[in-house]
Design a protein that fits this description.
By secondary structure, the protein is an alpha/beta fold. Helices cover about 35% and strands about 25% of the residues. It is built from eleven helices and 13 strands. It has a five-stranded mixed β-sheet with strand order 1-7-6-4-5, sandwiched between helices. The radius of gyration is 19 Å and the shape is globular. The mean pLDDT is about 100. The structure holds coenzyme A. Coenzyme A binds near residues 35, 36, 39, 221 and 315.
Amino acid sequence: MSRINAAITGVHGFIPKDVLTNKDLEAMVDTNDEWIKARTGIEERHILRDPNLATSDMGAAAVEGLLKKKGISALDIDLLICATVTPDYFFPDTGTLICHKVGAKNAFAYDITAACSGLLFALTTGAKMVESGSYKNVIVVGADKMSSITDYTDRATCILFGDAAGAILIQPNDKGNGIIDSWMRVDGVGAEYLHMKGGGSKNPPTHETVDKKMHYLFQDGKPVFKAAVKGMAEAVGEIMKRNNLGPDDIAYVVPHQANLRIIQAVADMLKFPMEKVMVNIQKYGNTTGATIPLCLWEWEDKLKPGDKVILTAFGGGYTWGASLWNWAY
Ligand SMILES: CC(C)(COP(=O)(O)OP(=O)(O)OC[C@H]1O[C@@H](n2cnc3c(N)ncnc32)[C@H](O)[C@@H]1OP(=O)(O)O)[C@@H](O)C(=O)NCCC(=O)NCCS
């Protein structure tokens, strides 16, 4: 039996309408537009303000847009994997809620929690499911309502994050395009520097955990910054080395969008010109699970079949990796 290739065949995004600009943040914490732009590259981010809406609503909107664009019925979805650190609930999983909202009655679903690398890990997993021959229409969603775990009195973190969702369709490809390779790692040493202290089984919610603001994202930015540069450069470097590729062979690198300076440092280390690096952090900030699909969505018209594309991410955990794809459309 010949090998089945698993290709990305469609991408769609959802961005909440409300914008939180650097100027808005100036009125909330001791910061300024110049500092935020110079240190992070971020100019604005979008926030899901309606308190009745959650991560699954953004994920469902992205999936509905994707299905419409591809002319596929929700009933044809076999599997939906949702990457998120801001699930609607601990359980049921957000993927199941998205399936319910879009009417994917023939699918099974689950979530992956690998922080900012969740989407990358979910994509590789989804691709392997298609390569197995058991599933034909797999949707990977990256969705996060980061505003729900952001402390808007902490100037070191509240400037970084935004809300959004993206959905990616993976299907078999008979032209030999699709995923070529992936390289992924985790190291729990990083938990100390980027985590949410409260709400889980280690520190179940109490009045005290709430008073201590333990249900917000905690980050010690400096070590995370250094590890992110090293991790993404390592992952992309490894995948290029073992596939005998140089920067000239790659059409685009699609990095997780956490900080423009991290992205520039990684591109520098790998000798990639910035024209080959997808960057839209200035408009959305760090949307965790959604950053890579939002980039692919925006660059979709510029990509063509056979283009070699490297996706790379780094996140809390630590988690990091890269995957190499032959673009299929
Ligand atoms: C968070 C981050 C932007 C901070 O940038 P930095 O250059 O490391 O800044 P520092 O933390 O060293 O702070 C430098 C100074 O700016 C101040 N500062 C921090 N946030 C500020 C803000 N929003 N506005 C103005 N000043 C600020 C600090 O208090 C510090 O002041 P001090 O020197 O008087 O103590 C950066 O560390 C980062 O991007 N980290 C990684 C983020 C990331 O990738 N997260 C997700 C992983 S997926």
